[in-house]
C-alpha cells in the first residue's frame, strides 16, 4: 500500500514527506493494512485444509508491534533462537504455537524451550535429536519434534538462500533418516510427530514446492511403515514477492491447485512458515538524498541510509525499486549509493528514475522483510527508527537508537 497519488508517494493515506518531518531520516516505514492483507490472503489459501498452523518466520522482522499483529491474527511463530521465542511471547504469543528451527540449538535454548512448553523442535541433525532427548529426560518430559528433511529439490532461487539441496547445511538427508531410524525410535523422550522441510526463500515458481511435498509424502509413508507415527507435515516458507514490478510474484494459483490439493489428499496436519511474504511489500526504507555527484559521466545519488540499514543488495544482489517521494517529470539514470566505506554499499546501478536533488527523499520499496532485522551498527551508525502507518495515522514502533545506547555495553 505504498504508491503514488498525484506524483506524491503515499503510504496508506499518508504523504510520506510529512513523516520525514516527524521522524527524521533514515527510517523504516510499514503499512499495517498491507501486512494484514497478506496474512488474510495466505490464511485463505490454506483454508480448505482442516488443521493448519501458520507459523510466521520471526527472523524476517521481529519488531514487537509486528509480532503482536501476528498474534492477534492467530499466527504462530517459527523461531531460530530463544530470543525470537521470548519476543513472540512478549508480544502476547502462546508458546504452544512456537516451532523451533535452526541448526545450532544450544543446551540452554533447548532447556528453556522445553520449560516454556513450545509446540515442537524442528530437528536439523541426528546429534541434535540425541541432545534434545537427553535434556528432555533430565527434565522428565517427553517433547514433540519434527525432523527437518533435506528433500534435495532445487528451489530455483538465489544460491545464498537455497536450503533444500544436498550440500546445504540444513536438515537431514533422507538416507541419514532411514539409516538412523532405529536410533531415532529408541529416543524415548522425544516424539517425532512431523517431518518438515524448507527448500528456499523468495521462490516464485510453485513447482519445487509440489515436487518436494511429493518427496516428503513418500518418505512419510516409508517411515510410518517402519513404526513411526507421523501426523504432521511442515512445508516451511519461501513464498516469493514482487521486488521487481515487471516480474511476477509467487504463483499462488498453481500452489493451490497442486500443493494444497496434494496436502488435502495426504490428510495430515500442516504447518507452514512464511516470513518474507507477510512483511516484505509492506515496508519501505525512507532515506534522504545527501548529495548528487557526477563523475566521468555517472550520476551518483548519495543517500543517508546504507548497507548497514539494508544489506540485501550488497549480500544477495537483491533488486529493490527506488521511488522518490515526489515524482518529477524528467528522468535520469543514477547509481544509488550509501555512506558506508565499502564499494558494495549501493542500492542500484544505472537505474532510471525521475530526477532527484539534494534534500529530496527516496523510498527503497519492499524492504520490510530481512531489512531492519538484518541491520547493524557497522560504521558506528545507530540503528534506525521503525514507523507504522495505519490509514491516516502513524506511530513509532521502534525509536531511533541514540549514540549512548549504541555504546552502552562497551567497556573502556
Ligand atoms: N522456515 C525456515 C526453516 C527458514 O529457514 C526460513 C528462512 C523461513 C521459514 C522463512 O522463509 P521466507 O518465507 O521468509 O522465505 N535473509 C535472506 C532470507 C533468508 C531466509 C532464511 N530462512 C534474504 O534476505 O533474502
Automatic annotation (TrEMBL):
Enzyme class: lyase
Active-site residues from the entry: 341
Pathway listed: Amino-acid biosynthesis; L-lysine biosynthesis via DAP pathway; L-lysine from DL-2,6-diaminopimelate: step 1/1
Domain Orn/DAP/Arg decarboxylase 2 C-terminal residues, every copy: 30-368
Modified residues (N6-(pyridoxal phosphate)lysine): 59
Molecular-function annotations in GO: diaminopimelate decarboxylase activity; pyridoxal phosphate binding
Documented EC number(s): 4.1.1.20
Residue numbers binding pyridoxal 5'-phosphate: 238, 273-276, 370
Keyword match Cell wall biogenesis/degradation: no
Family to which this protein belongs: Belongs to the Orn/Lys/Arg decarboxylase class-II family. LysA subfamily.
Protein name: Diaminopimelate decarboxylase
Organism: Brachyspira murdochii (strain ATCC 51284 / DSM 12563 / 56-150)
